[in-house]
Structure prediction request, 322 residues.
Amino acid sequence: MASARSATNERSGLEAASLVPVVLAIGVFGVIYGAAASGVIGPMPAIVSSLIVFSGAAQFSLVGLLASGASGLAVLAVVAILALRHLPLGALLRPRLEGGLAARMGRAWFLIDETAGLAIASGGSASSTLLVAGVFSYLAWVVGTVLGVMGADLGNLESLAEVVFPVLFVALAALTARSRPDIVRAFAAGAASLVLLAFWPDAGALGCMAVAAAVCLPGRPG
Amino acid sequence: MSIWLLLALAAVITYTSRAATTAVLPAPEGRLGVIIERLPAPLFSALAAVALTDSAAGVTDWPVLAAVLGALVATRTRSMFLILAAGLASYALAGWLTGF
Prediction:
């Protein structure tokens, strides 16, 4: 019993340690976003955008499009397209989340690629993992944005932060692959996504999610 | 459109997309349920490809490639911590070796 509890504690400790590089990387990108956004939409809107949107893809796109002179409607159309990526992630999380509608609505706020992945791969409660990872990620994103607006200097941290996300997603793919067909589909989706992005770089995450869904169609092995 | 209205609408769109399937819509069943059940590993694998090509030098960034390979090797441990550690260590080693 004691050794089982010890193993559980050790596992929890390692899961918590895994969160550190992810949260730091999100904070670094928050700094980059804050620095870029304050010059385009102003310091206060940059900070408020991180407080109320909490989506790097949407916010970077919003600022980039506004900087290139796009209309508000065009910006919202792109934000809506990018938001579609949350639908499969939410559907994956739904059966794993405990609690009623209000609890799920609250936790939905923290749904980003990284937190959803950590929650799905978690050996414990997906609800708790989503909440803890989400709160720390949200704080890192907002604090990073504030520091960026204030002109923080990152040094070489940007390149280090860039490597965290591909490694994290490799880890999440490995931990959620529970059978040989899962592994085959994961390699197929990764390879097909690289080919798609090589020929159509604008396909982005949404295009690659469609590829992942395609390799999971019923009728295929597994 | 003012920047404040634009940000508010972007926030509403983003949160609605998060809450729709997480909290409001019924859990998927039938063919869609099968796809959702199979989706996690391929989905994260696809997102790894996106993150890899999003890095500054893309797939020609040797230290980032080394990090992914190091992480792939460590997947046999099935430990999130060890996979992340192996990826970051491989990145540091490749950076040192290539002088990045």
